[in-house]
What does this fold into?
Amino acid sequence: MRVVTPKMSLIDRIYIPALIKGLYTTIKHFFMRRFTQEYPEEKRKPFPRYRGLHRLNKDHLGRVKCVACYMCATACPSKCIEIEADEAPWKDREKYPVKFEINTLRCIFCGMCEEACPELSIQLTHIYEMADVTREAFVRRKDDLLGTNEFWVLKEY
Amino acid sequence: MSPFWIDLIIILIKVIVVIGALLGGVVVMVVVERRGAGFIQERLGPNRVGPWGWLQPIADGIKLFFKEEFVPAQAHKLLYLAAPAFFMFIAFVTFAVIPFGDKIELFGRTIQLQIADVNIGILYIFAFASLGIYGIVIGGWASNNKFSLMGGVRSAAQMISYEVALGLSIIGVLMIGQSLRLNDIIGVQTQYWSYLPRWNIFIQPLGFLIFLIAAIAEVNRIPFDLCEAEQELVVGYQVEYGSMKFAMYYLGEYANLITFSALIVVLFFGGWHIPWIEGLTIHPLLLALLQVGAFVVKVFAFLWFFVWVRWTFPRFRYDQLMRFGWLVLLPLAIFNILATGVVMVLIP
Amino acid sequence: MANIKIDGNELQVPDGITILEAADIAGIEIPHFCYHKELSIRGSCRMCLVEVEKTPKLVPACSTTIKDGMNIFTSSEKVIKNRKGVLEFFLINHPLDCPICDQAGECTLQDYVYKYGSAVSRFTEEKEHFERKKEIGPHVLHYSERCVLCGRCIRFCEEISGTHELARFNRGIRCEVDVFPGKKLDNKLSGNIVNLCPVGAMVSKEFLFKSRVWWLTHTESICPLCSRGCNIEIDSRDNRILRVRPRPNPEVNSQWMCDDGRFGWSFVHREDRLTSPLEREGEELVPINWAQAISLVKERLSFIISNFGREAVAAIASPYLSNEDNYLLRVLLHSVIRSPSMAVYQAAQMEEQIVFPSGFTIEADKSPNLVGAQDVMTVDGKKPISHGKLLKKVASGEVRALYILGGVPRISLPVDEREMLRKVDFLVVHNYAPSELTEWAEVVLPNLTFAEREGTFTNFQGRVQRLKPALLPPGEAKADWEILQEVCQAMGGEMSYPSVEKVFEEIAGAIQGYKSLSYKDLGTQGKVKG
It folds into this structure.
């Protein structure tokens, strides 16, 4: 098979009709609906499975549900979860995290931790407004992550 | 008061009004360009500062004004600083010979709505428009940056190529007008063929087209903005410029744009002429104001056209630019002169 | 020799071995819990059942001896079905708390269920519960719920340690392993039970919840705490040792190690580890940089040599440091300074030798490399003098400068020896932390502990074994051989050893008994010197 370059007619070679067509296209778009969302006033509603800031769930007694099994930290591809386990101070529980930190700067919000968790303790919420001014603030500590819950209820998306 | 002082005051007022109008035009153009681009791309564009975003240029200005004055270490300091000022100066001065209205009678004096009625106005404009290129070339060289230099060199090459076509394209208009004075050219266009105004656009459509294209090239706008070319040269000759030096280039560019829009209107669209208004009885002062208004409307239409073109077409490649200038526009312009001449001989 | 067939592979195996051992030779894995190479055979877990041709029922691989012409199937349908069934029974009362179990990741039950077991359980009733965590000894915690009742731990206490602390109690579903009333699992080998347990029933108290095992970095090394030189594996994470486990070496430690070595590494992470060279200024030791330290040592040694002669410089080698480190001290003294006054520090720590019924012995001499240190300090067949004799020379004023290699984990110098160190004009000490040696030292150079060190130890049997570095050195601390090499070069010696391997090569060339050895050939098990 031979590729044949199509021959251009005189009208094509003058280019001016094509230019006018181009101008028509752009002016058509000038009058179309604008897609801009004016963010701070107009907030995007995340999809149901959107993965935002993590939260640590609590059990029925209000204690951290996490048993410090390190499954999330093992599954984490960016190695952003740091846990320090210790013996739990409660009778019915054995192991619990004394330290549970997520470095949200390293986190890629893949949700693997959520999938790996055997206790349904770590979950990703719809919160996407996480900006801050210091690096330290991005390291979410255990209490921050437990508090995500209240924050989540307060902020209706 | 002696007539000399009165004339001086009148000229000063005209100068101030024209410069004010030019600056105002630039301010308007900044908003129109940015929001227009937004709309064409189905965005909103800048709409935060002031109502409908009208104060955006003020915010930009304040920002640029307070930015650090930075001179690259290896730059030629004097030329580096002088280039943008020169560029802006030329851009503003070029407007001096553009007539933006008919003569008006005020306090028993005839006042020409034009800063300087020069009998070689068209040459003046071409001379100064060509000088403007020095602002770009010197800026590009003095920055001591390879991108800047390439931007400047490209700009010079482009200017030489397209100024030829630009100049030749209006020879036809000059042949019809029999004068280099812009007021005379408008004067010819205020006549009628039965009901059709004798605007040069109807007589010289080819000349208009060549002039329009070459004008876009002359003001360095897409699709002829090879000297800026964000993608290849970052922004070409402006790479090393910031704060008010950058703002001067910016102002100069838009002033040039306005000047050339005005020139198109004067040469091809009857300048301040409003067709079929002569039959009505209007107070001469009101008529003059209407004519100035008509001029502004016509100029603005072309300014919008430039914006529209900018957000529609892609940039030329360098070889395409050169081929188009020398092998298409130049022969067409010469053909246009010949055809005009033949027609003028056949139909006196 | 018997000709047998396992899974279709024909092979010759020695008579009298079991099917499990034969399968091991054939490279076929047969899952098992109760069988352990070093322990007697019980055949109680029923995990290793395999099919033998012309045998009506499955037979336990661990306790059936090979017969000529046997045709064994280790993965036939019947065998696989049995494994699945056995594992289901094991899991009936197993709590499945793998997420919080320290054994997870190196648990045989977990591995076997993953490989051979079923993903679902048909057992819907409540699982049997026991007292969850029992402290049965100073180092061991017992989780009865996780136990598979293989009895390895019980047999260990009967056969290896001979201390008989553990037994099965109760019958049927309530059956569990425990210590006899009033007793504690506190023998010197109790830590081995943690490694022995195939599941998470016996876990280490020290390592509890410290880390998940798959995050540990394993480094093969040698225990530095007695002259037996048990082969160990250092498990570390984030530059910290988290646990130490024995590595099998039938010639040295079989599969075991004592608790002294297992938990005795804490000195590695002492808070007061030296991180830079120190110089004495009055009462205080102040940090200086390496270049200053080396030039200071050179200046002072040269001064003493030119004023009091070469014999005025003496050195004491350390049985706690590697052969390479001590060899470089010999190079400094013998080849560079040419002084004969060399000694090896002896009898630093002597305790009673402990011999267990299995033959496993904890040696009396607590230094790991006395034999090696004496070997490398022997010049032309002349053994080094005892350090006591050398100290007498110090007292008599014969010796003016003393170069001591330290590195002792726990030291207690006799008072008279400490006083004698005071008398030296110039005392250089290599040590990893402040100690009684550094008390009077003029210059203290920071060296490494066994966990950061590379080199070889020669144990009491004359077996040369390799240490590998598990951790990064703290601060600017350096290996002794590197420091000594710099001192040698500063003193005008023209030698250069780019690596430990090069030093060992020279030892192999120069020291009697090491001639047949090469660094690479030492491997993981070491080699006995000639």
